[in-house]
Amino acid sequence: MRIINYDKAIKNLITFIKEKVGDAGATGVVIGVSGGVDSATVAHLATKALGKEKVLGLIMPYHMNQDVEDALLVCKKLGIEHKVINIKEIVNEFEKNIGFELDKVSKGNLMARTRMILLYAHANSRNYLVLGTSNKSEFLTGYFTKWGDGASDYAPLINLYKTEVWEVAKRIGVPEKIISKKPSAGLWEGQSDEDELGISYKLLDEILYRLVDLKMEKNKIAEELSIPVEKVEYVEYLIKKSEHKRRLPLGPEI
Fold first, then answer.
1. 220: part of which helix (H) or strand (E)?
2. Helices (H) and strands (E) in the chain, counts
3. Alpha carbon 175 to chain centroid distance?
4. What is the pLDDT of residues 128-180, one digit of tens each?
5. In the chain, domain spans
6. I need a labelling partner for 143 at 20 to 30 A (CA). Which of 123, 151, 187, 236 fits?
């Protein structure tokens, strides 16, 4: 993986948040705190940048489980204002009015978009910005819901791979139990990021770095990492099929 000066990177992340909030004339930020490492890291960075009085954490579970306790741990540790909003009734009402039962992926996307509606409702009412929690690994592979958790005003972690987020988290005081827990978007019981992606974050990041940053040939990546070239082709496929998620809607030239 690439070599990063983490002290400098953390300083840049904090400055970025502070400057963007100031440039927008906003009075604070709202973050969806999931109980995972990405949102915990953004919450810690925002608190360092703005002070705890200007950070609102929204905890928005569909299932009341350990993730809620972990999200509360982060908010209480930082001393930020926080609210727990159970989205189950909202999501189920949406599904009821759609008129048919959604498959689990479609319902998971509906949960993510419901959370973003709530984040922006709170942001608009307070003159806050919404800080997203997506990292570079998820962004490049399309592992996010379009107009859901992929929507935000600014995404401080968007240029950090997942393994790099873990390193930042360690250095800024994110609780160890959150750093070491199995990554999950919490869209359904037992859901795991790496199971859905079909690859570990560690290997994914090694491939992405060589494929995207270094622009190495697939065969050379496979040889360097001692993996089948099909693994590299699979990651390349994830990037290509999710291209539409990383751009605004396009139309023809007139």
1. helix 218-225
2. 12, 4
3. 18
4. 999 999 999 999 999 999 999 999 999 999 999 999 999 999 999 999 999 99
5. 6-197
6. 123
